[in-house]
Design a protein that fits this description.
Elements: H1 7-24, E1 29-42, E2 53-57, E3 62-70, E4 76-85, E5 97-108, E6 111-119, H2 121-124, E7 148-156, E8 163-170, E9 181-189, E10 198-206, E11 211-222, E12 225-236, E13 242-252, E14 257-266, E15 276-286, E16 291-302, E17 306-317
Antiparallel strand pairs: 1-2, 1-3, 1-17, 3-4, 4-5, 5-6, 6-7, 7-8, 8-9, 9-10, 10-11, 11-12, 12-13, 13-14, 14-15, 15-16, 16-17
Membrane topology: Multi-pass membrane protein
Pfam families: Porin_4
GO molecular function, one term: porin activity
Length: about 325
């Protein structure tokens, strides 16, 4: 037993408890997250993720832990626990966290199977298409199927010649769907555009969040230029709503500056009550690989309403 004789030695003992296990198990887990602050001014409050007026927020800031442990020559346990961290609003003091991807599973020569809360493989299929991901200009404003579900089983095959197959299955959940559903995705190329300069995905979702949809996504990077496109046909499970959605995105890196633009349109009336078009433009400034500042403007046009938002933000990934 260690005897603590002073405040200094107590501090040293507590520090060693935090640091030594991390050093000893560094190959097993990583703590990661995103810290972001944004000042935004939004016109009418019609769009998602942005309230009317001037707001200071921490959009989709989060912290998580992920890792793996080799069990034997056949199986490795994998896990992820991630929460969104809030705190800028008065209501956030009583509910500062909300659930994000949280799961436990196994991987091996067969691929990987995880159980828990996870992005559907339909959402996952977007890759690096969305230049305004997790902002007011996110394609989820008007494109259906960008969902994360609890109580899911996700299977992902190992890559073979730059190709991968994955599927999400969710049993019936009264909170999100009328019946059990699934999403299946075929990927060719590198989703992160690091191993290959191209990424293509074909994906279908059936009944998850009461949506049936199919999409094709293509992203290509040539030196500093990145281009992306999406086509999607969506319909509601009850057949009362259906239509097509399109997204075009482009960005160009100039030293540390990355100007970008994106156009999205959808007439299925699933995410919005009417046909919707959104045009977003902005620029990122990359201080380093982890830290960036950004400015964006986005305009949402609906049949009976419209909205626009301008934002200045600072983001740090760790």
């Amino acid at each position: 037993m260690i005897k603590i004789t002073s405040k200094t030695s107590l501090f040293a003992a507590l520090t060693s408890l935090l640091i030594i296990p991390k050093a000893a198990l560094a190959e097993d887990y990583d703590v990661y997250g995103k810290v972001e602050v944004q000042i935004a001014d939004t016109d009418t409050g019609e769009m998602r993720y942005a309230a009317e007026g001037t707001q200071i927020d921490a959009p989709f800031s989060r912290i998580g832990i992920k890792g793996e442990r080799k069990l034997n020559e056949y199986f490795t346990a994998v896990f992820k626990y991630e929460v969104q961290v809030k705190g800028f609003e008065s209501d956030d003091t009583t509910q500062p966290f909300s659930a994000r991807n949280t799961y436990l599973g196994l991987k091996g020569a067969f691929g990987e199977v995880v159980v828990g809360r996870n992005d559907s493989r339909f959402k996952y299929s977007e890759g690096k298409l969305d230049n305004f991901n997790e902002t007011q200009g996110d394609i989820a404003q008007i494109i259906a199927g960008q969902d994360r579900f609890g109580d899911t089983i996700t299977y992902s095959s190992n890559y073979w010649n730059n190709a991968q197959f994955s599927v999400t299955y969710a049993p019936k959940d009264d909170a999100t769907a009328e019946e059990a559903g699934f999403a299946a995705t075929f990927i060719y190329g590198d989703r992160g555009l690091k191993k290959t300069p191209y990424y293509v995905s074909l994906s279908h979702v059936d009944s998850l969040n009461d949506v049936i949809a199919s999409r094709i996504v293509a992203v290509y990077k040539f030196e500093q230029l990145k281009l992306g496109a999406l086509y999607q046909h969506s319909e509601s499970v009850d057949g009362t709503k259906s239509g097509d959605g399109y997204v075009l995105s482009a960005s160009y890196a100039i030293d540390k500056w990355v100007p970008k633009v994106q156009l999205a349109t959808d007439d299925s009336t699933i995410r919005q009550a009417s046909e919707a078009t959104q045009l977003s433009a902005g620029v990122d400034y990359l201080f380093d690989k982890q830290t960036s500042a950004y400015f964006l403007y986005t305009d949402l046009d609906l049949d009976a309403a419209a909205d626009s938002s301008v934002a200045l933000g600072l983001k740090y990934n760790f």
